[in-house]
Design goal:
The chain is an all-beta fold. It has one domain. It contains no helices and 23 strands. The strands form four sheets. Strands 1, 3, 6, 7, 10, 11, 14, 15, 18 and 19 form a ten-stranded parallel β-sheet that branches. It has an eight-stranded mixed β-sheet with strand order 2-4-8-12-16-20-23-22, with no helix packed on it. It starts with 6 loop residues before the first strand and ends in a 30-residue tail after the last strand.
Length: 190
């Protein structure tokens, strides 16, 4: 699917299965829902603009999520998402809160890279990585400022250095949308 430079109004791609989708330079006006979607191959979101709530909760990325220079003006919701390939943020701007609560990273996860300070993402309203887990213990993890990595038996978990989320009380308590094959949390039906 090639939607490069498209203007998309109030789109709902929940539970869709994508193979090499191209959203480079696309502008999402209103809510953009990719909840529970599955992405195979590279998911191209470079230079994309999200004017409203961007919901990727419960999404699963089997290829790279190529999203450098993307801009999120509202909440960017990646709660419960799974990233099976390298995850790198480069020059993304998050004007609203960025939620990665309960996300899973199966390869290296680089939210910042000290070697390339100009490529660092900007989190204006904070990022929540509570219970985010890295399953491959040999991979590189570069958490954003205020977050650290703790070793566990079979994985690593990203924790706040302040023992609370950097978003504090504003954190969304609703569970993420279930990924494909997972049973929905009963709180989704209420």
């Amino acid at each position: 699917m090639n939607l490069r430079s498209a203007v998309l109004l109030e789109v709902d791609f929940s539970e869709c299965i994508f193979i090499e989708p191209e959203f480079e330079g696309a502008r999402f006006t209103g809510r953009a829902r990719f909840s529970g979607a599955t992405f195979h191959g590279t998911a191209g979101f470079a230079h994309a603009k999200f004017d409203g709530y961007a919901a990727f909760d419960g999404a699963e990325f089997f290829g790279h999520m190529f999203s450098h220079d993307a801009a999120y003006k509202d909440i960017a919701d990646f709660r419960g998402s799974a990233f099976h390939r390298q995850f790198h943020l480069a020059r993304e701007e998050f004007a609203g809160q960025a939620w990665f609560t309960d996300s899973e990273f199966h390869a290296d996860a680089r939210f910042v890279n000290p070697a390339f300070p100009r490529a660092a993402p900007i989190f204006h309203a904070g990022i929540d990585l509570t219970n985010a887990r890295i399953w491959n213990t040999s991979e590189v993890v570069m958490p954003p400022t205020g977050w650290a990595v703790e070793e566990e038996d079979t994985s690593r978990v990203i924790v706040s250095e302040n023992s609370n989320s950097s978003l504090g009380a504003a954190r969304n308590r609703r569970p993420p949308y279930p990924r494909q094959g997972q049973a929905p949390d009963p709180r989704w039906t209420s």
